[in-house]
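Notes to self after the Tuesday call (sharing in case useful).
The group wants a holo model before anyone commits to mutagenesis around the pocket. I volunteered. Ligand is zinc ion. Logging inputs and output together so the record is complete.
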Amino acid sequence: MNETTRTFQEYLKANRLKLTSQRRLILDVFVSRGCRVTADELFKEVAELDDGISLSTVYRTVKHLLQSGLARCSHYGDGTTRYEPADGQTSHLVCEVCGRKVPIANPYLECMHAEAARQAGFRMLHCHVTIHGLCHECLTKHEN
Ligand SMILES: [Zn+2]
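Result:
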């Protein structure tokens, strides 16, 4: 399992979801293309490999890829949204007890940092924030 797949699996696990063979196929096709695609284009490609995949599965998986930081999207003037692989360098929540690392993608957070950088005459290339705390499971154990 490569780093990208692992990151996706960790994200899914943190959201109580499983890395199904369909989600994995969508991820693999998306990453191997390496360029900007619409959800429909991605659907056409994965449907050729697995005709059991629905368009809504592709849409939902793309949403998870965005939230896990493995994809970013651009909106075009013609109303289409295109997705491309990202490096997964998102911000993380880190549990101080069990060490679990949960990726969080918050576009507002990113905007705020880019704006703070801009005001200082700085052009932001990457931004990585780590929030330390207790994960849901450790918190539940702690309270009981
Ligand atoms: Zn924990």
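Two things stood out.
The longest strand covers residues 71-75.
The chain has two domains: 3-85, 91-143.
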